[in-house]
Amino acid sequence: AATHEHAARPGQGVGARVERKEDARHLHGRGRFVADFAMPELSEVAFLRSPLAHARIVSTRLPAAGAERVVLRETMGDALDIVADSALPTYQSSAQPPLASGKVRFVGEPVAMVYAPTRAEAEDLAEQVEVEFDDLPVYADAASARAATGELMHEGWRDNIFVTLNADKDFDLHAKQASLVVRRSIDLARHCMVPMEGKAVLAYWDHQADQLVVVSATQVPHMIRTILAQCLGLEQGRVRVISPDVGGAFGYKCVLQQEELCVAWLAKTHRKPFRYIEDRREHLIAGANTREHHYEMTAYADDRGRLLALDARITIDGGAYSVWPFTIGLEPGQAVGNLPGPYAFRGYRCVTECVATNKPGFVPYRGVARTGVCFAMELTMDAIARAVGREPWEVRLENLVPASAMPYVNVANKHFDSGDYPASLVKAREMIGLDAVRERQRKAEADGRLIGVGFATYTEQSAHGTSVFATWGTPVIPGFDSATVRMTPDGGLEMRVGVHSHGQGMETTFAQIAHEILGVDIANIKLVHGDTGQTPFSTGTYASRSLVMSGGAVSKACKALAPRVMHIGAHLLGVAPEAVSISQGRVVGPNGSVPIAEVAQAWYLRPDRLPADVDPAGLEVTTGFKPKVDTGAFTYASHAVTVAADPDTGHVEILDYVIVEDCGTMINPMVVEGQTYGGVAQGIGTALYEETPYDRNGQPLASTLADYMLPGATEVPNLRIHHFETPSPHTEFGAKGMGEGGAIAPPAAIFNAVNDALRPLGAEVAQTPLTPRRLLEAIAAAQLA
Ligand code: MCN
Ligand code: SMO
What we know:
The protein is an alpha+beta fold. It folds into 4 domains: 98 residues, Aldehyde oxidase/xanthine dehydrogenase, molybdopterin binding domain (Aldehyde Oxidoreductase, domain 4); 118 residues, Aldehyde Oxidoreductase, domain 3 (Alpha-Beta Complex), CATH 3.90.1170.50; 331 residues, Aldehyde oxidase/xanthine dehydrogenase, molybdopterin binding domain (Aldehyde Oxidoreductase, domain 4), CATH 3.30.365; 146 residues, 2-Layer Sandwich (Aldehyde Oxidoreductase, domain 4). The protein has 19 helices and 31 strands. The strands form 8 sheets. It has a 7-stranded mixed sheet with strand order 4-8-2-15-12-13-14. Strands 1-31-30-29-21 form a 5-stranded mixed sheet. β22 and β23 form a beta hairpin. α9 crosses α10, α9 runs parallel beside α18 and α10 packs antiparallel against α11. It is globular, with a radius of gyration of 27 Å.
């Protein structure tokens, strides 16, 4: 399939820029988040959190008044710990207790749970719980964790290493043909995820249904039900999980959170409602972390800069606990598999070690390891270009997998399905106006700042199947999903999916898919999602899988519904079913048409008007979808950015930013653009601002938004986006998932641009975030050298 430029489509179907249905309720304050629920007798929960990074709990003393409202691990009886098992051979599993038991492993780990009528009272009571600790050696970074001689992070472990993953594909064979060897050390800082809404969970006992109901800000309600029932020893049918409106999730909410388990336990035990809402300080101290990767890259290339082989050592600081269900194995697994990026070299060796330290554990975060590997690979690509004295885009262009080679299996066994990677780079170069920037660089800036331009190209695998997740040791992910579509008596649709939309716009885009097939007005299509009591099972929303998998199932269900609608419609028209079709919400025959609403009315209210051989299953279909292959559909993009770096103040300003992306057929280009804007804003955060530093005692040094820098509206430039649409051969409509991609490339493109700007000074930067201090240090180091 050839890559073609996107042409906007009118109407409400696939490809139309339809305004988001869900925005009306959010803009009018009618959204309902966990914090908005009101309930009689609701108790608010607070946690007493560990002040130390690694310590034994010697004793705990409860306050005289209110002791009955304090819960410790011992009090929780036989509630199970969160154990995240993996099939990876070197993996050491961690057990995360719902409340610390015996010892604490990071600052902020919940030690006691307390409840009261208000949060303030609960916090006051928590402060009166006295805990005596005995210090243990703190592993505040990967080096100290590796060198451990004292007590290890987890009982029964052989060392402090969660998992080691290696790859070796024809490395020696190709490396020895190289005439050039380029080395770089590259670092990404640890940071938080900072969704607008943090963790939020409310649980109560539904006495009528005799059921535990857990209302949680989660991406994966069905998975949370499965694991909560297991951990609490309840039959699956006695747990219902509802994910209401969610104020951003970004991966933070795709795992079982210990607070979810704690609050659910309270509701199960006391048969009353309880709620916990994470505050910003708790998020910054004790919420999950992401991104901290260290790379030692050695690239083997020829004189033109063609990469022949890559040797990489990756260290990931995974923090204290592995998460359920994905496990910490996902991070190194994605790192090893995605480091080669969109390039066509054939020799690859990689050793990835994921270390356990006394910090909050890693949770998947938009892009997962791909932001790190893209950063490492793209900085290395620019380093190669420097070494051979060519333009970085030119060297990149020669290394990218060409369109003529598609479909292509790369050195890490990624099955690229379609697309024209070089064309996206060429277009990005054109849009950023490279020649004009080079001209401007020759003339120098009047204000003394240095201008630079940088590129990055990446692939974003979506629609991962069972076999792909199995290579990361997580066999829980199926390469399929399902949907229920029911036509209502007025000819509208009620659609049910087990994935969950927490900002992605699915209520609109899934309706567009149904409109494309059945012609029903999207105003009369309702998407029900995120409630285990009302939707078909799904593992949920993550890995940019929802559109392809669940949206694919919506498509299949609508396609299965169509012949039933036509069958009744043909009967109403008095013609044979083969003679009719569906068009613009009507069943159309050779000599007349009937609105779909009339068909629906016949099914529900006028059985006398139905054909004798009508399908008794009626106007409701549940069906599943699976892509033609298990190996995924690959979105790709090239980002190009122009920056100005001030050598006096160290300040970096983004002057221009362009994105040329191809996610196959777009269901809604406006939604795709919104997804891209949000992702890029987060990527800019990773590149320039966000960092959670720790001191050597494992104390977090950025615990408020005054210390933890987020990009605001003034730091995010106007982004210019250009679309290609190369349909995937494996999916409905040829769509590919793209929800994470925006966050993958910005650190790479921005650092390459800054390094381009710094060339006259001989300085180079390779550590996020690029604070003014780091920039000035790099310049100072170059002056000394
Ligand atoms: N879309 C489209 N055409 C395509 C591809 C996608 O119109 N070819 C639309 C989809 O219909 C959907 C949206 O774009 O409305 C994203 O679709 P998809 O790529 O399938 O991603 P998911 O829906 O599975 O969302 C998950 C993804 C992930 S993994 C993270 S992390 C992330 C992201 O989405 N978290 C988000 N985007 C987010 N956006 C918001 N607002 N909030 C989050 O927490
Ligand atoms: S990090 Mo996204 O939820 O896969």
